[in-house]
Write a structure and sequence with these properties.
α1 (31-41) crosses α4 (148-156) and α25 (929-945) crosses α26 (957-967). The protein is α+β, with helices and mostly antiparallel strands. The chain contains 26 helices and 35 strands.
């Protein structure tokens, strides 16, 4: 039911008839937002949610209206021959909603479209206008926060629909449809079915693949220096330590090489003025420096100033939430949406770092109250920035209202994730109006001559913060992969002066190796896409979700690792559709779309040039190259699927190319070797399976040789004496296993038909190797024991059920009927007795099937949310982390040995946020939806008429019950 309130209205214009107040229908996207703003607007407003988009381009051929099905462009859902006119269809699940809105519209005097204040919100408003076809005045109501003053102000100051913004969003939608529907079929034909290409997702995938290529090509370099501990003498104090650290930076005037002096090939970038120390020289030099006189040759002190960080916009919020809270981009945006819709923060899809005057006043007042006037900036700070491809100006993400609620004040009203994200936004906003942090940096050079004659220079650096300023409230996290020092970190040095002697307490030769560029995390990928000008910051969360869901990328811990399918797809796009995944071209396309939004470019002309070709764009652009349609048509026949799906890695010790082939059933390793049956003939293919969990950069020549040692057909172990079947050991997608080779079914002598149908053919026995087993050393006896599983332990004397011991994909366990219990170790599968099994079943069942007798795999620290100790246990479905109340399975890339407390807390928080597992209920008989919708609409119409003084409606329980029922509809965010 529509949400309404009986308070006073923001304005009270009279209707043209009978002098009654105007009645208005306000449409927002989500029921949560509708419930929140209705009390602010008053009794003459009825607020209803469209629940996201009500119509879109056809999702498939079945959705295309019958009158268009014969057209050659119908599959696109866009009439490319008629100014790129899109076909819009109402989603089947929104038809009842549209009928409901039309019915409500019939009883009001004005329609307010109050969708989100961005391009997509403007487009949703336009679709509502086009679908509902109202005969009453229509106004666009825009607000950036859901507070009573903001909502009342928005209702009093409406505007017309911005057609340029609508055109820009529609152009993006059409462009994405043309790109996806023209290029994706190429991937289906040349790589594998069900793949997809996208204007931004393909470029984002390329960014990740390029980084993995860099890691694969990287060659490490070794270099050494000397780490010294020096004693300045005098008193040792907290503010001025006596002993400090320094590093060797120069030998005989030549700078000692560090990691940044080496290129990705492991060679020095320049030989001039740089010396590379090896282990022997570093040890010899350290030895010869013992006992020599060391003196301070220079002391350089500089003032240090750090300005506050700008308030959050969408991309920086996603990055910082990933670093500080371990949230994914999707999770961050989902929580931010809830905070916005419930009135706690301003609109969360924004490219702006600007604060309103009232917000600046609120932040300064709160900073003064909490930290003192000296910690507040002398003048208000405004953070204006020119954002590439910026959307129309919004305010930064900040706490809502003219005064900010502290996190403590909202603690009881927010769940744990909401509280943590709100606290982050609040801290950043308040800190943005605080004073600069000030301090000093100190660089000291210490020189001595070794006994072997070399002049050696050591360097020590320190930083002291003399006034914390904004750091008192907030410190931005540092990317783990990039490294570096946080802004509040201090490293103090003793008070030193030129000519002062110091003593070497320790001189330790220290070896280092250069590291490949780090893989992208969600935070660093968002930052990279923003710097490249690719896509919209508000869409980064959905882009990352898409490439993960499509299997182009998977996570290893927090790192994003590309799959071999991604390598094949990116390789094809680079070779044949290079402009479509070119970074500069994609960023320039965003500029063109912004020109449409600004009214500087005409939508139809731009789309025509992009699709059919034209003079628009720079030299070499898609338009100048003949357009997308021609590009796809001409290139398709030239694409050699075998070449595209062959990713060369390296040559082996005999000069043979080792490649990864992407096949229809997954990737595998291949090289051409001499035919053992005909050494002088043509070489034959040697293949090996690739484990899913093996990242591309870890597929080294050594690993490849190990995989080739167990070919695809498996390593023959011998013959099962009981069945006569050959037993082989194989490497599969989910790990190593053993299996038997069954003979081919005999053919009928009369008909030639096989006696056994394919569907009824017996399946070979298989068994996963134990963790203690190795594919290269497993014996026939080991394999036969694995194939004998499940092992019958005995029969439960009470229930009569058989108890078996089995080895599953997630570890060893007992099974009795439908009741499974984990075993502590794999060896128990063959040794557990009936008595022991009954004892295990007599104990209370642990969550996740963990046996009580099993010790934790690893003990962790305290969960930040519950303050309870965390441990990792091994359950039936693999290792999981628990705080005693909540269990969360470790995910792909999480390792028992290396998982951090922060990551464990993140897994537990994510599991809590998803709530308990819902049990599937029995299907109820279907009710007539039309009748239900009709009754709901009738109740809403009655609610509207109740505001008319000429209508007297008796209140009853039926209407109240209908209102409550409708109010329980699930909240849906904008798609």
């Amino acid at each position: 039911m529509a949400t309404r309130d009986r308070g006073a209205a923001p304005n009270s214009q009279a209707a043209p008839d009978q002098g009654r107040p105007l009645r208005r229908l306000v449409i927002v996207e989500s029921p949560t937002k509708a419930r929140k703003i209705a009390p602010y607007l008053g009794r003459n407003y009825v607020v209803e949610a469209s629940v996201g988009h009500i119509r879109d381009l056809p999702r498939g051929a079945a959705d295309v209206p019958a009158k268009y099905k014969g057209q050659d462009w119908a599959r696109l859902g866009v009439d490319v021959n008629n100014d790129f006119e899109p076909i819009y269809v109402i989603s089947p699940d929104k038809k009842a909603k549209v009928s409901e809105l039309k019915s409500l519209l019939a009883d009001v005097d004005e329609l307010y479209l109050a969708t989100d204040p961005d391009r997509e919100g403007e487009a949703i408003a336009w679709h509502l206008l086009e679908t509902l076809k109202p005969k009453v005045p229509v106004r666009r109501m825009v607000f950036h926060e859901i507070t009573e003053p903001a909502i009342r102000a928005a209702a009093a100051d409406t505007r017309d629909l911005d057609q340029d913004l609508v055109d820009a969003q529609e152009t993006r939608r059409i462009l994405d449809r043309l790109y996806g529907y023209e290029v994706s079929p190429v991937l289906w034909k040349k790589v594998m079915p069900k793949l997809s290409a996208g204007r931004v997702q393909s470029v984002a995938t390329r960014v990740i693949v390029r980084r993995e290529r860099e890691r694969m090509a990287f060659r490490s370099a070794e270099y050494w220096d000397i780490a010294a501990k020096l004693d300045a003498g005098g008193e040792n104090g907290d503010s001025n330590p006596r002993v400090f650290g320094a590093r060797l930076v120069q030998v005989d005037g030549a700078r000692v090489a560090t990691g940044r002096d080496f290129g990705p090939d492991g060679q020095l970038k320049t030989q001039s003025g740089v010396t590379v120390l090896d282990s022997a020289y570093a040890h010899r030099l350290a030895e010869s420096l013992h006992g020599v006189d060391l003196g301070v040759t220079s002391v350089e002190s500089k003032p240090y100033t750090r300005k506050p960080y700008a308030p959050f916009m969408t991309s920086t919020l996603q990055q910082e939430a990933a670093r500080k809270l371990r949230f994914t981009s999707e999770r961050t945006m989902r929580i931010a949406q809830r905070l916005y819709e419930n009135g706690y923060i301003t609109y969360m899809r924004t490219d702006s770092t600007t604060l309103s005057e009232s917000a600046i006043r609120a932040a300064r007042a709160q900073a003064t109250q909490l930290y003192g006037a000296e910690y507040v900036s002398p003048t208000p700070r405004q953070y204006n920035r020119k954002v590439k491809n910026a959307q129309e100006a919004h305010e930064a993400i900040r706490p809502s209202g003219d005064t900010f609620a502290t996190p403590g004040e909202l603690h009881a009203r927010l769940d744990n994730d909401e509280f943590r994200l709100y606290e982050l936004i609040w801290q950043r906003t308040v800190a943005s109006q605080m004073a600069d942090a000030r301090g000093t940096t100190l660089t000291v050079r210490i020189t001595g001559v070794a006994n072997t004659g070399e002049e050696c220079v050591f360097s020590a650096s320190g930083r002291t913060i003399t006034f914390a300023g904004f750091l008192k409230a907030y410190v931005e996290s540092v990317d783990e992969e990039a490294g570096g020092q946080s802004d509040d970190a201090e490293s103090r040095l003793p008070a030193l002066s030129e000519g002062q002697n110091v003593t070497a307490v320790e001189l330790n030769p220290d070896g280092h190796t250069t590291n490949p560029p780090p893989r992208f995390t969600e935070a660093s990928l968002v930052k990279a896409l923003e710097e490249l000008g690719i896509g919209r910051p508000s869409t980064y969360a959905s882009i990352i979700k898409t490439i993960l869901d499509r299997g182009y990328v998977y996570k290893r811990g927090s790192a994003l690792v590309p799959s071999w399918v991604a390598f094949a797809v990116v390789g094809l796009l680079e070779a044949y559709f290079g402009r479509l995944v070119d970074f500069d071209f994609t960023a320039a396309m965003e500029d063109d779309l912004d020109a449409i939004a600004g009214g500087r470019e005409q939508r139809g002309n731009w789309l025509s040039s992009f699709y059919f070709g034209g003079e628009n764009g720079v030299e070499g652009s898609v338009a100048r190259s003949g357009g997308l349609k021609k590009m796809v048509g001409e290139q398709l026949d030239d694409i050699d699927a075998r070449v595209i799906n062959s990713i060369k890695l390296f040559s082996d010790s005999e000069g043979r190319d080792v490649v990864v082939r992407v096949g229809r059933f997954g990737p595998y390793l291949e090289r051409m070797v001499a035919n053992p049956d005909d050494p002088q003939g043509d070489p034959v293919s040697q293949r090996a399976n690739l484990p899913d969990e093996l990242p591309p950069d870890e597929l080294t020549p050594e690993v490849a040789e190990k995989l080739f040692s167990t070919p695809q057909e498996g390593r023959r172990l011998g013959t099962d004496p009981a069945t006569g079947h050959e037993i082989v050991a194989k490497e599969g997608r989910f790990g190593p296993y053993v299996t038997e080779i069954l003979p081919e079914p005999a053919e009928d002598a009369d008909t030639g038909a096989k006696k056994t149908k394919k569907a009824a053919a017996p399946k070979p026995r298989t068994g996963s190797l134990f963790k203690s087993m190795d594919l290269s050393t497993i014996t026939l006896d080991d394999a036969l024991k694995l194939l004998s599983l499940p092992r019958v332990v005995g029969v439960d004397p009470e229930s009569g059920d058989e108890i078996t011991a089995q080895n599953g994909r997630y570890g060893p366990y007992l099974k009795k009927g439908t009741d499974s219990r984990s075993l502590a170790g794999e060896e128990q599968i063959f040794s557990v007795t009936l008595e022991e099994a009954l004892k295990i079943y007599a104990e209370p069942k642990r969550r996740g099937g963990q046996a009580a007798s099993a010790a934790p795999l690893r003990e962790l620290g305290i969960d930040a949310a519950t303050q309870k100790p965390m441990v990792i246990k091994d359950g039936r479905f693999g290792p999981y982390v628990t705080d005693g109340e909540t269990n969360a399975s470790l995910r792909k890339g999480d390792e028992v040995e290396s998982i951090t407390d922060e990551r464990a807390s993140e897994l537990l928080a994510d599991r809590r946020a998803r709530g308990p597992v819902k049990k599937t209920a029995k299907k109820a008989a279907k009710k007539a939806p039309a009748k239900k919708a009709a009754s709901k609409t009738a109740a809403k119409k009655a609610a509207i008429k109740a505001t008319d003084p000429t209508n007297v409606v008796k209140k009853g329980t039926t209407k109240k019950a209908a209102a409550k029922k409708a109010a329980k509809k699930a909240s849906a965010s904008k798609s």
